[in-house]
Specification:
The chain is built from eleven helices and seven strands. The chain is of the alpha/beta class. Helix 1 runs parallel beside helix 11 and helix 4 packs across helix 5.
Length: 273
């Protein structure tokens, strides 16, 4: 823990001294709110099993004391994004099994409980496509078909309430890196923004160590959130991941996941008001 915290502080200091903020990608959607609202309501509503989600550690669905850490994360992400004009946010990790997709799901439902903010969450990990399974969903269309333009996004999109959309794919792709970096994928994402006008698009990305999928895609987002695992992610792993992300986009912050030993300075009150 101490070595990881030292690495975090070192990376933060170096970044503030030597790096300039990467300008947001120009992909602001046009002002057509009524058309966007109609497109949202046409999507099928996602069917969720609260007990199943609770077993999977998806705690932000209903809110309450258990959701407090994710609500804090939601608010910090929202404030940072709004103050910097960031719309596209990638969630990355140095390696697998950090709990990244679980964190994405909790962040998504936290945003879904916040009125006035519309979010689209896309499972961009075409090597595993685990977000749908995590949410208890079944399907057969891979996200690669959507990003290649052969299947409409509306065919894989599921709506939660009136302000959250999950874009879920199923099955692995043989060439995820090439698809994510293609011009066609860029056009598809712009089309999603034009149609649904989300305030935020959140991408659940493959681990950085899995290949060049995430590295090749980071230039298309405004910022990235790095998820590391307490007791597993080494200081060197984090340092490499932070530098890789910072070379392509803005580092929004770091989430220290699966940490059971926090001081009061890092956690929140046990009591709930």
């Amino acid at each position: 823990m101490e070595r990881l915290q030292t690495a975090l502080n070192k990376a933060r200091t170096q970044r503030s001294r030597s790096e300039k903020t990467v300008a947001p990608t120009p992909h602001t959607p046009p002002e057509t709110p009524h058309v966007a609202e109609a497109a949202w309501l046409e999507l099928p509503e996602i069917q969720l099993n609260p007990r199943y989600l609770h077993r999977k550690r998806i705690l932000a669905l209903q809110g309450g004391p258990a959701a407090a850490p994710f609500d804090i994360l939601r608010t910090r992400v929202t404030l940072l994004a709004q103050s910097n004009g960031w719309r596209r946010i990638a969630v990355v990790s140095p390696h697998s099994a950090t709990g990244k997709s679980t964190m994405v799901a909790n962040l998504a439902f936290g945003l879904g409980r916040k009125r006035g903010i519309r979010s689209v969450v896309i499972d961009a990990d075409m090597r595993r496509s685990g977000l749908g399974k995590l949410l208890g969903q079944k399907g057969h269309i891979p996200m690669s078909d959507v990003l290649e333009g052969s299947v409409a996004f509306s065919d894989v999109a599921l709506r939660y309430r009136a302000n959250l959309i999950f874009g879920l794919g199923y099955g692995a792709s043989r060439s995820p890196s090439e698809i994510l970096q293609s011009e066609r994928a860029k056009e598809v994402l712009k089309g999603i923004e034009t149609t649904y006008m989300p305030d935020f698009m959140i991408f659940d990305m493959p681990p950085l160590s899995a290949g060049d999928d995430t590295l090749g895609f980071l230039s298309q987002v405004d910022a990235a959130l790095i998820v590391v695992e307490a007791g597993s992610t080494g200081a060197k792993q984090f340092d490499i991941a932070e530098r890789q992300v910072a070379e392509q986009t803005n580092v929004m912050g770091v989430v220290l996941n699966k940490c059971r030993f926090l001081s009061r300075a890092w956690g929140q009150e046990d009591a709930y008001y």
